[in-house]
Specification:
Blueprint (H helix, E strand, L loop, with lengths): L1 H7 L4 H17 L10 H13 L5 H18 L25 H9 L3 H13 L3 H5 L6 E2 L4 E4 L8 E4 L5 H14 L1
Helix pairs in contact: 1-2, 2-4, 3-4
Length: 181
């Protein structure tokens, strides 16, 4: 039922998978009782268990909360009430870790073949892993040194740079793949 509601609302497949996972975890936590029989206290107990016993991050706890709010509001049509005893995890403010050029070169030197080419594309074009995995030949424009990312984050298309130094390795890769067919 969750999948049907997610698809009607045009949620991404990853959101659907995530919500399904957390709803299943919630049901198992309450010894396979139907969610319709549980209330705010049950949701609170589950989220507090995630925080104190499983020691999940703040974003993970938020994701589980969003999945359960979705379950109650959209699927069961029984909105959650106020949760006063919820232990919210505090986000840690960290400085992002950025590799130096030398460190990137060192990492790339230990990679070979297609994974190396993909890593270079990730680094040189600013792609996300999912975007790189779904990249198609027709998305590459060698003439203008650009590539188009289709249905990226937020379901939007965007254009980014295609580094000149990757033109030849990409051509070689495409020829190898074409020969295998």
């Amino acid at each position: 039922m969750t999948s049907i509601v997610c698809r009607r609302r045009h949620y991404s497949p990853r959101t659907e998978d995530s919500y399904t996972y957390w709803i299943r975890q919630y049901i198992y936590f309450h010894h396979k009782r139907h969610p319709n029989t549980l209330d705010e206290k049950g949701v609170e107990a589950f989220l507090n268990h995630l925080a104190s016993v499983r020691r999940v991050s703040a974003s993970t706890q938020n994701q589980a909360l969003n999945a359960l709010v979705f379950l109650c509001d959209a699927v069961l049509e029984k909105p959650l009430g106020q949760m006063t005893g919820l232990k919210r995890i505090q986000r840690r403010h960290r400085v992002p870790v950025v590799l130096t050029r030398e460190e990137v070169k060192a990492v790339l030197s230990h990679m070979h073949g297609t994974p190396r080419l993909m890593a270079k594309l990730l680094y040189g074009s600013g792609l996300r892993v999912g975007e790189c995995m779904t990249l198609r030949v027709k998305d590459l424009d060698f003439a203008s040194a650009s590539l188009t990312v289709r249905s990226g984050k937020g379901g939007k298309d965007r254009t980014t740079v295609l580094p000149k130094r990757l033109h030849e390795p990409l051509h070689q890769h495409l020829f190898r793949v074409a020969e295998q067919r």
